[in-house]
């Protein structure tokens, strides 16, 4: 796997790319992509970083796994390509945005527009085999993305972390709470949202309120 990643991130992450676990991970991913259909496409594996340079990162949203259906995953957590039907979690995200910040429900589920404003949409695992959720977990991706979170926590100031669901909430242990802001809630998946753990969390307005306090540009959700 030739690591093609935005230079602003590469400077910070280069030490990770040199570690034995990453070499093993790269070999695993390369073999999987040769043998099976995997998502996202190879050039989109590091898209979250390419669309949101290190110095411009203001908000971090942590997902778990890429979508594993055809043409869905585009390298940004919860995001799908233009013209693709919105998966249930994304539907619930947009419903909360609509109520929270009074934005109309969008036609496209492509969240590149958020990333361009400084929202890092980071999945803990960056690849997946088609139709097999979690198939690339515990192969090294989590070690890499944990390192990403630690680097952001150490080298940045005043980042707003949105941790949705039990898996994401565990990542709070990696974040320096004296320097950053953490908002937690249930996951936007129907299972969690329909039990009252997602809707009404107001994370989008709360994020902008925090950014305003720090004199940072607000996110146009």
UniProtKB/TrEMBL annotation:
Residues at the active site: 65
GO terms under biological process: base-excision repair, AP site formation via deaminated base removal
UniProt KW keywords: Cytoplasm, DNA damage, DNA repair, Glycosidase, Hydrolase
InterPro entries: UDG_fam1 (IPR002043), Ura-DNA_Glyclase_AS (IPR018085), Uracil-DNA_glycosylase-like (IPR005122), Uracil-DNA_glycosylase-like_sf (IPR036895)
Ranges in a coiled coil: none
Domain Uracil-DNA glycosylase-like: from-to ranges: 50-211
One Pfam family named in its UniProt record: UDG
Domain of life: Bacteria
Location (main, coarse): cytoplasm
This protein's name: Uracil-DNA glycosylase
Species classification: Bacteria, Pseudomonadati, Bacteroidota, Flavobacteriia, Flavobacteriales
Gene transcribed to yield this protein: ung
